[in-house]
Amino acid sequence: MRGSLQSFSLLAVFILGLLTGRPAVAHDSLRDRIDAYVRAEQKRQGVPGLAVGVVHRGRVVLVKGYGSANLEHQVPAGTDTLFQAGSLGKMFTATAVMLQVEAGRVSLSDSITKYFPDAPATWAPITVRHLLTHTSGIQDLEGQIDNRKDYSDDDFAKLIYGLPLDFPAGLRFSYSNSGYVLLGILTNRVTHSTYQEVLGRQVFKPAGMKTARGISEEDVIPNRAAGYQMIGGVVKNQSWVSPSLNTTGDGSLYFSVKDLLAWEEVVDERAILTRASWREMLSPAKLNSGASYPYGFGWEVKERNGKPMHAHTGAWQGFKSAYSRFLGDELSIIVLANLSQASPGAVVEGIAKIVNPALAVPPLKPIPDLEPQVTARLTTLLEQTRAGAWDPTMFAYVPWWFVAEAGPYYQGILQSLGPAGPLVLAKRETRGDDRYYTYLVPFGSATWRYTVAFVPDGRVSAFSLAEN
Which residues are in the Beta-lactamase-related domain (predicted)? Predict the structure, then answer.
Protein backbone atom coordinates (compact mmCIF):
# COMPACT_ATOMS: atom_id res chain seq x y z
CA MET A 1 0.00 0.00 0.00
CA ARG A 2 2.81 2.40 0.83
CA GLY A 3 4.23 1.99 -2.69
CA SER A 4 0.86 2.69 -4.30
CA LEU A 5 0.43 5.90 -2.29
CA GLN A 6 3.88 7.07 -3.37
CA SER A 7 3.06 6.32 -7.00
CA PHE A 8 -0.17 8.29 -6.77
CA SER A 9 1.63 11.23 -5.16
CA LEU A 10 4.31 11.30 -7.85
CA LEU A 11 1.66 11.08 -10.58
CA ALA A 12 -0.22 14.00 -9.07
CA VAL A 13 2.95 16.09 -8.93
CA PHE A 14 3.72 15.22 -12.55
CA ILE A 15 0.21 16.20 -13.74
CA LEU A 16 0.33 19.44 -11.74
CA GLY A 17 3.64 20.24 -13.37
CA LEU A 18 2.15 19.70 -16.83
CA LEU A 19 -0.79 21.94 -16.02
CA THR A 20 1.12 24.85 -14.51
CA GLY A 21 4.71 24.39 -15.61
CA ARG A 22 6.11 26.33 -12.68
CA PRO A 23 6.30 23.67 -9.91
CA ALA A 24 8.04 21.16 -12.17
CA VAL A 25 10.51 23.76 -13.43
CA ALA A 26 11.33 24.85 -9.87
CA HIS A 27 11.72 21.22 -8.85
CA ASP A 28 14.04 20.49 -11.77
CA SER A 29 16.10 23.61 -11.09
CA LEU A 30 16.61 22.65 -7.44
CA ARG A 31 17.53 19.08 -8.36
CA ASP A 32 20.05 20.27 -10.92
CA ARG A 33 21.70 22.68 -8.48
CA ILE A 34 21.96 19.99 -5.81
CA ASP A 35 23.29 17.48 -8.34
CA ALA A 36 26.00 19.88 -9.53
CA TYR A 37 26.99 20.64 -5.94
CA VAL A 38 27.24 16.95 -4.96
CA ARG A 39 29.38 16.16 -8.00
CA ALA A 40 31.76 18.97 -7.13
CA GLU A 41 31.87 18.02 -3.45
CA GLN A 42 32.53 14.36 -4.22
CA LYS A 43 35.50 15.42 -6.34
CA ARG A 44 36.74 17.91 -3.72
CA GLN A 45 36.61 15.32 -0.93
CA GLY A 46 38.03 12.55 -3.10
CA VAL A 47 35.27 10.13 -2.11
CA PRO A 48 35.06 6.99 -4.29
CA GLY A 49 31.28 6.70 -3.99
CA LEU A 50 28.28 8.53 -2.61
CA ALA A 51 24.52 7.99 -2.50
CA VAL A 52 22.31 10.99 -1.79
CA GLY A 53 18.61 11.36 -1.07
CA VAL A 54 16.80 14.68 -0.64
CA VAL A 55 13.14 15.10 0.30
CA HIS A 56 11.61 18.58 0.37
CA ARG A 57 8.00 19.30 1.28
CA GLY A 58 6.97 15.73 0.64
CA ARG A 59 8.72 15.42 -2.72
CA VAL A 60 11.79 13.33 -3.45
CA VAL A 61 13.90 16.04 -5.07
CA LEU A 62 16.95 13.84 -5.66
CA VAL A 63 17.90 10.20 -5.16
CA LYS A 64 21.12 9.29 -6.91
CA GLY A 65 24.45 7.51 -6.70
CA TYR A 66 27.79 9.11 -7.56
CA GLY A 67 31.17 7.58 -8.33
CA SER A 68 32.13 4.01 -7.50
CA ALA A 69 30.70 1.42 -5.14
CA ASN A 70 33.74 -0.78 -5.82
CA LEU A 71 36.95 0.52 -7.36
CA GLU A 72 38.50 -2.87 -8.02
CA HIS A 73 35.56 -4.09 -10.09
CA GLN A 74 34.66 -0.63 -11.42
CA VAL A 75 31.09 -0.85 -10.16
CA PRO A 76 29.22 2.48 -10.11
CA ALA A 77 27.41 3.60 -6.96
CA GLY A 78 23.66 3.69 -7.40
CA THR A 79 20.45 4.05 -5.46
CA ASP A 80 20.49 0.30 -4.64
CA THR A 81 24.11 0.28 -3.42
CA LEU A 82 24.40 -0.92 0.18
CA PHE A 83 26.60 1.12 2.52
CA GLN A 84 27.49 0.40 6.12
CA ALA A 85 25.62 2.91 8.24
CA GLY A 86 27.85 3.01 11.33
CA SER A 87 26.21 4.81 14.24
CA LEU A 88 23.28 5.87 12.09
CA GLY A 89 22.12 2.38 13.08
CA LYS A 90 21.64 3.54 16.69
CA MET A 91 18.21 4.99 15.87
CA PHE A 92 17.22 1.51 14.68
CA THR A 93 18.58 -0.22 17.78
CA ALA A 94 16.57 2.29 19.81
CA THR A 95 13.52 1.43 17.70
CA ALA A 96 14.03 -2.29 18.39
CA VAL A 97 14.18 -1.54 22.12
CA MET A 98 11.03 0.60 21.99
CA LEU A 99 9.20 -2.25 20.26
CA GLN A 100 10.03 -4.36 23.33
CA VAL A 101 8.80 -1.57 25.60
CA GLU A 102 5.51 -1.47 23.71
CA ALA A 103 5.26 -5.27 23.94
CA GLY A 104 5.68 -5.09 27.74
CA ARG A 105 8.96 -7.01 27.79
CA VAL A 106 11.06 -4.02 28.83
CA SER A 107 10.51 -0.82 30.79
CA LEU A 108 12.57 2.33 30.29
CA SER A 109 12.88 2.64 34.06
CA ASP A 110 14.17 -0.92 34.53
CA SER A 111 17.63 -1.25 36.03
CA ILE A 112 19.78 -2.90 33.40
CA THR A 113 20.85 -5.42 36.04
CA LYS A 114 17.45 -7.03 35.38
CA TYR A 115 18.83 -8.08 31.98
CA PHE A 116 22.46 -8.34 33.06
CA PRO A 117 22.24 -10.00 36.50
CA ASP A 118 25.98 -10.65 36.65
CA ALA A 119 26.83 -6.97 36.10
CA PRO A 120 28.70 -5.03 38.81
CA ALA A 121 26.58 -3.90 41.76
CA THR A 122 27.47 -0.31 40.88
CA TRP A 123 25.31 -0.70 37.76
CA ALA A 124 22.05 -0.99 39.74
CA PRO A 125 21.10 2.71 39.28
CA ILE A 126 21.61 2.52 35.50
CA THR A 127 18.33 2.21 33.61
CA VAL A 128 17.42 1.29 30.04
CA ARG A 129 16.69 4.98 29.46
CA HIS A 130 20.22 5.89 30.54
CA LEU A 131 21.65 3.52 27.92
CA LEU A 132 19.44 4.97 25.19
CA THR A 133 20.44 8.57 25.99
CA HIS A 134 24.18 7.99 26.60
CA THR A 135 23.81 9.11 30.20
CA SER A 136 24.70 5.79 31.87
CA GLY A 137 28.28 6.65 32.80
CA ILE A 138 29.50 3.39 31.24
CA GLN A 139 32.82 4.01 29.57
CA ASP A 140 33.04 3.71 25.78
CA LEU A 141 34.64 0.48 24.63
CA GLU A 142 36.02 2.09 21.47
CA GLY A 143 39.79 1.68 21.45
CA GLN A 144 39.61 -0.89 24.26
CA ILE A 145 38.58 -3.91 22.24
CA ASP A 146 40.53 -6.31 20.04
CA ASN A 147 39.11 -5.76 16.54
CA ARG A 148 40.54 -9.11 15.41
CA LYS A 149 38.90 -11.19 18.14
CA ASP A 150 35.48 -12.80 17.95
CA TYR A 151 33.22 -12.12 20.91
CA SER A 152 29.97 -13.74 22.00
CA ASP A 153 27.23 -11.61 23.58
CA ASP A 154 28.44 -12.79 26.99
CA ASP A 155 32.03 -11.89 26.07
CA PHE A 156 30.96 -8.36 25.08
CA ALA A 157 29.00 -7.94 28.30
CA LYS A 158 31.86 -9.16 30.51
CA LEU A 159 34.32 -6.87 28.72
CA ILE A 160 32.04 -3.88 29.37
CA TYR A 161 31.54 -4.94 33.02
CA GLY A 162 35.29 -4.43 33.46
CA LEU A 163 35.23 -0.81 32.27
CA PRO A 164 35.10 1.75 35.08
CA LEU A 165 32.06 4.01 35.36
CA ASP A 166 32.95 7.56 34.36
CA PHE A 167 30.18 9.16 36.44
CA PRO A 168 26.94 8.29 38.27
CA ALA A 169 24.00 7.44 36.03
CA GLY A 170 22.14 10.51 34.77
CA LEU A 171 24.79 13.03 35.80
CA ARG A 172 25.77 13.99 32.26
CA PHE A 173 25.85 12.96 28.60
CA SER A 174 28.83 11.01 27.29
CA TYR A 175 28.57 9.18 23.97
CA SER A 176 29.03 5.48 24.64
CA ASN A 177 29.01 2.73 22.05
CA SER A 178 29.11 0.35 25.02
CA GLY A 179 25.57 1.34 25.95
CA TYR A 180 24.21 0.46 22.52
CA VAL A 181 26.14 -2.82 22.42
CA LEU A 182 24.33 -3.66 25.67
CA LEU A 183 20.97 -2.58 24.18
CA GLY A 184 21.51 -4.95 21.28
CA ILE A 185 22.28 -7.80 23.68
CA LEU A 186 19.27 -6.86 25.82
CA THR A 187 17.02 -7.11 22.74
CA ASN A 188 18.59 -10.44 21.81
CA ARG A 189 17.89 -11.80 25.29
CA VAL A 190 14.26 -10.69 25.66
CA THR A 191 13.27 -11.74 22.11
CA HIS A 192 15.34 -14.94 21.93
CA SER A 193 16.49 -13.82 18.48
CA THR A 194 18.74 -10.95 17.39
CA TYR A 195 17.99 -7.25 17.25
CA GLN A 196 18.78 -7.42 13.51
CA GLU A 197 16.10 -10.10 13.04
CA VAL A 198 13.65 -8.01 15.07
CA LEU A 199 14.34 -5.05 12.79
CA GLY A 200 13.92 -7.21 9.70
CA ARG A 201 10.50 -8.47 10.78
CA GLN A 202 9.05 -5.43 12.52
CA VAL A 203 10.73 -2.45 10.87
CA PHE A 204 12.42 -3.14 7.55
CA LYS A 205 9.68 -5.30 6.02
CA PRO A 206 6.65 -3.17 6.98
CA ALA A 207 8.54 0.02 6.10
CA GLY A 208 9.38 -1.21 2.60
CA MET A 209 13.11 -1.10 3.32
CA LYS A 210 13.69 -3.90 0.85
CA THR A 211 17.46 -4.32 1.13
CA ALA A 212 18.20 -3.09 4.68
CA ARG A 213 19.87 -5.83 6.72
CA GLY A 214 22.58 -6.73 9.17
CA ILE A 215 26.21 -6.85 8.08
CA SER A 216 27.64 -10.24 7.13
CA GLU A 217 31.01 -11.01 5.60
CA GLU A 218 29.84 -14.57 4.87
CA ASP A 219 26.62 -13.91 2.96
CA VAL A 220 26.53 -13.10 -0.74
CA ILE A 221 24.91 -9.67 -0.71
CA PRO A 222 23.92 -7.97 -3.99
CA ASN A 223 25.03 -4.36 -4.47
CA ARG A 224 27.32 -4.30 -1.44
CA ALA A 225 29.76 -1.36 -1.59
CA ALA A 226 33.40 -1.64 -0.58
CA GLY A 227 34.67 0.63 2.18
CA TYR A 228 37.90 2.59 1.75
CA GLN A 229 40.39 4.64 3.71
CA MET A 230 42.98 7.16 2.58
CA ILE A 231 46.54 6.37 3.69
CA GLY A 232 49.37 8.63 2.59
CA GLY A 233 47.22 10.05 -0.19
CA VAL A 234 46.43 6.57 -1.56
CA VAL A 235 43.03 4.90 -1.39
CA LYS A 236 43.22 1.56 0.44
CA ASN A 237 40.63 -1.04 1.39
CA GLN A 238 39.02 -0.80 4.82
CA SER A 239 40.64 -2.60 7.74
CA TRP A 240 39.33 -6.07 8.54
CA VAL A 241 37.49 -6.67 11.79
CA SER A 242 36.19 -9.91 13.27
CA PRO A 243 32.66 -10.91 12.18
CA SER A 244 31.26 -10.50 15.69
CA LEU A 245 32.06 -6.78 15.69
CA ASN A 246 29.55 -6.43 12.87
CA THR A 247 26.66 -7.88 14.87
CA THR A 248 26.48 -5.32 17.68
CA GLY A 249 23.77 -2.77 18.43
CA ASP A 250 26.05 0.26 18.18
CA GLY A 251 25.85 0.19 14.38
CA SER A 252 26.04 -3.03 12.30
CA LEU A 253 23.59 -2.45 9.48
CA TYR A 254 23.56 -2.07 5.70
CA PHE A 255 21.29 0.45 3.98
CA SER A 256 20.80 1.79 0.49
CA VAL A 257 19.64 5.36 0.04
CA LYS A 258 16.30 3.90 -1.11
CA ASP A 259 16.01 2.06 2.20
CA LEU A 260 16.57 5.26 4.14
CA LEU A 261 14.06 7.18 2.01
CA ALA A 262 11.52 4.52 3.03
CA TRP A 263 12.58 5.03 6.66
CA GLU A 264 12.18 8.78 6.19
CA GLU A 265 8.52 8.18 5.37
CA VAL A 266 8.14 6.08 8.54
CA VAL A 267 9.68 8.85 10.65
CA ASP A 268 7.58 11.52 8.98
CA GLU A 269 4.37 9.57 9.55
CA ARG A 270 5.40 8.41 13.07
CA ALA A 271 4.69 4.85 11.94
CA ILE A 272 5.90 1.45 13.28
CA LEU A 273 5.96 2.78 16.87
CA THR A 274 3.20 4.59 18.75
CA ARG A 275 3.25 8.36 18.83
CA ALA A 276 4.03 8.20 22.53
CA SER A 277 7.13 6.15 21.74
CA TRP A 278 8.17 8.62 19.07
CA ARG A 279 7.84 11.46 21.60
CA GLU A 280 10.21 9.57 23.89
CA MET A 281 12.62 8.88 21.03
CA LEU A 282 12.78 12.52 19.97
CA SER A 283 12.82 14.29 23.33
CA PRO A 284 16.06 15.68 24.81
CA ALA A 285 17.62 13.69 27.63
CA LYS A 286 16.96 14.98 31.14
CA LEU A 287 19.96 15.01 33.47
CA ASN A 288 19.82 14.60 37.25
CA SER A 289 20.17 18.37 37.63
CA GLY A 290 17.03 18.97 35.58
CA ALA A 291 19.03 20.32 32.66
CA SER A 292 18.40 18.83 29.23
CA TYR A 293 20.87 17.55 26.67
CA PRO A 294 20.06 17.58 22.92
CA TYR A 295 20.03 13.81 22.39
CA GLY A 296 17.03 11.48 22.44
CA PHE A 297 17.05 7.74 21.75
CA GLY A 298 19.50 7.34 18.86
CA TRP A 299 18.77 10.85 17.57
CA GLU A 300 20.37 14.24 18.07
CA VAL A 301 17.54 16.68 18.76
CA LYS A 302 18.83 20.15 18.01
CA GLU A 303 17.71 23.36 16.34
CA ARG A 304 18.62 25.19 13.16
CA ASN A 305 17.38 28.64 12.25
CA GLY A 306 15.19 28.56 15.37
CA LYS A 307 13.38 25.38 14.32
CA PRO A 308 13.77 21.70 15.27
CA MET A 309 16.45 19.60 13.59
CA HIS A 310 16.81 15.85 14.15
CA ALA A 311 19.94 14.10 12.95
CA HIS A 312 22.61 11.45 13.37
CA THR A 313 25.87 10.47 11.73
CA GLY A 314 27.87 7.27 11.48
CA ALA A 315 31.40 6.04 10.79
CA TRP A 316 32.73 2.48 10.58
CA GLN A 317 35.05 0.36 8.45
CA GLY A 318 35.66 2.80 5.63
CA PHE A 319 32.11 4.19 5.55
CA LYS A 320 30.55 7.46 6.68
CA SER A 321 26.87 8.44 6.85
CA ALA A 322 24.72 11.44 7.73
CA TYR A 323 20.96 11.91 7.99
CA SER A 324 19.39 15.24 8.91
CA ARG A 325 15.77 16.35 9.13
CA PHE A 326 15.17 20.12 9.14
CA LEU A 327 11.60 20.06 10.38
CA GLY A 328 10.79 23.73 9.89
CA ASP A 329 11.65 23.50 6.21
CA GLU A 330 10.22 20.00 5.70
CA LEU A 331 13.65 19.04 4.38
CA SER A 332 15.40 15.70 4.89
CA ILE A 333 18.85 14.85 3.55
CA ILE A 334 20.61 11.46 3.49
CA VAL A 335 24.26 11.06 2.47
CA LEU A 336 26.12 7.73 2.42
CA ALA A 337 29.83 7.53 1.56
CA ASN A 338 32.47 4.81 1.28
CA LEU A 339 35.59 6.61 2.52
CA SER A 340 36.61 6.93 6.16
CA GLN A 341 37.88 10.49 5.57
CA ALA A 342 34.66 11.60 3.85
CA SER A 343 32.53 14.35 5.39
CA PRO A 344 28.90 13.51 4.56
CA GLY A 345 27.85 16.09 7.13
CA ALA A 346 29.44 18.80 5.01
CA VAL A 347 27.46 17.54 2.01
CA VAL A 348 24.26 17.71 4.07
CA GLU A 349 25.06 21.29 5.07
CA GLY A 350 25.81 22.30 1.49
CA ILE A 351 22.54 20.85 0.21
CA ALA A 352 20.55 22.47 3.03
CA LYS A 353 22.05 25.85 2.16
CA ILE A 354 21.03 25.41 -1.49
CA VAL A 355 17.44 24.61 -0.51
CA ASN A 356 17.23 27.47 1.99
CA PRO A 357 20.20 29.81 2.58
CA ALA A 358 18.80 30.54 6.08
CA LEU A 359 19.74 26.97 7.07
CA ALA A 360 23.44 27.70 6.64
CA VAL A 361 25.46 27.51 9.84
CA PRO A 362 26.08 31.17 10.69
CA PRO A 363 29.75 32.16 10.52
CA LEU A 364 31.45 32.84 13.81
CA LYS A 365 31.89 36.51 14.62
CA PRO A 366 32.89 38.46 17.73
CA ILE A 367 30.36 38.82 20.53
CA PRO A 368 30.61 40.86 23.75
CA ASP A 369 33.01 39.23 26.22
CA LEU A 370 31.33 39.55 29.60
CA GLU A 371 33.65 37.07 31.35
CA PRO A 372 37.20 38.35 30.86
CA GLN A 373 38.40 36.06 33.65
CA VAL A 374 37.40 33.02 31.56
CA THR A 375 39.19 34.42 28.53
CA ALA A 376 42.31 35.00 30.62
CA ARG A 377 42.19 31.44 31.92
CA LEU A 378 41.80 29.99 28.43
CA THR A 379 44.65 32.13 27.12
CA THR A 380 46.84 30.54 29.78
CA LEU A 381 45.50 27.07 28.93
CA LEU A 382 46.41 27.59 25.27
CA GLU A 383 50.01 28.38 26.21
CA GLN A 384 50.14 25.44 28.63
CA THR A 385 49.08 23.26 25.72
CA ARG A 386 51.85 24.69 23.54
CA ALA A 387 54.36 23.91 26.28
CA GLY A 388 53.07 20.36 26.78
CA ALA A 389 52.15 21.20 30.37
CA TRP A 390 48.66 19.76 30.76
CA ASP A 391 47.80 18.82 34.34
CA PRO A 392 45.49 15.77 34.23
CA THR A 393 43.66 16.97 37.36
CA MET A 394 42.28 20.00 35.51
CA PHE A 395 40.14 17.72 33.28
CA ALA A 396 36.86 16.01 34.09
CA TYR A 397 34.92 13.34 32.20
CA VAL A 398 37.18 13.38 29.14
CA PRO A 399 37.87 10.05 27.36
CA TRP A 400 40.42 7.80 29.05
CA TRP A 401 42.98 8.41 26.26
CA PHE A 402 42.49 12.16 25.97
CA VAL A 403 45.29 13.70 28.05
CA ALA A 404 47.94 11.26 26.79
CA GLU A 405 47.02 11.55 23.10
CA ALA A 406 45.27 14.87 22.54
CA GLY A 407 47.78 16.89 24.56
CA PRO A 408 50.79 16.10 22.32
CA TYR A 409 48.59 16.40 19.21
CA TYR A 410 47.51 19.97 20.03
CA GLN A 411 50.99 20.85 21.26
CA GLY A 412 52.36 19.98 17.82
CA ILE A 413 49.73 22.11 16.09
CA LEU A 414 50.40 25.13 18.27
CA GLN A 415 54.17 24.90 17.89
CA SER A 416 53.79 24.78 14.11
CA LEU A 417 51.44 27.79 14.07
CA GLY A 418 53.66 30.15 16.06
CA PRO A 419 52.52 32.86 18.47
CA ALA A 420 48.80 33.29 19.07
CA GLY A 421 47.04 36.64 18.89
CA PRO A 422 44.40 37.73 21.41
CA LEU A 423 41.43 35.44 21.93
CA VAL A 424 38.16 36.84 20.55
CA LEU A 425 34.96 35.36 22.00
CA ALA A 426 32.60 34.18 19.23
CA LYS A 427 30.13 31.84 20.95
CA ARG A 428 28.96 30.85 24.42
CA GLU A 429 26.45 28.08 24.99
CA THR A 430 25.28 25.57 27.57
CA ARG A 431 24.88 21.86 26.87
CA GLY A 432 23.48 19.98 29.81
CA ASP A 433 25.35 21.43 32.78
CA ASP A 434 28.52 22.29 30.83
CA ARG A 435 29.45 25.77 29.60
CA TYR A 436 31.10 25.93 26.17
CA TYR A 437 33.23 28.86 25.02
CA THR A 438 34.40 29.25 21.42
CA TYR A 439 37.03 31.81 20.43
CA LEU A 440 38.56 32.99 17.19
CA VAL A 441 42.35 32.99 17.55
CA PRO A 442 44.68 34.61 14.98
CA PHE A 443 47.95 32.89 14.10
CA GLY A 444 49.64 35.16 11.59
CA SER A 445 47.28 35.41 8.61
CA ALA A 446 45.26 32.33 9.66
CA THR A 447 42.38 32.19 12.12
CA TRP A 448 41.62 29.12 14.21
CA ARG A 449 38.58 28.08 16.22
CA TYR A 450 39.30 27.26 19.88
CA THR A 451 36.60 25.63 22.02
CA VAL A 452 36.73 24.68 25.69
CA ALA A 453 33.96 23.44 27.99
CA PHE A 454 33.76 23.57 31.78
CA VAL A 455 31.80 21.44 34.21
CA PRO A 456 30.13 23.31 37.12
CA ASP A 457 33.17 22.87 39.39
CA GLY A 458 35.42 24.58 36.80
CA ARG A 459 37.28 21.58 35.42
CA VAL A 460 37.69 21.20 31.65
CA SER A 461 35.41 18.66 29.95
CA ALA A 462 36.18 19.44 26.29
CA PHE A 463 39.05 20.99 24.34
CA SER A 464 39.40 21.44 20.59
CA LEU A 465 41.41 23.55 18.17
CA ALA A 466 40.64 23.62 14.45
CA GLU A 467 41.20 25.89 11.49
CA ASN A 468 38.24 28.22 11.01
Answer: 34-342
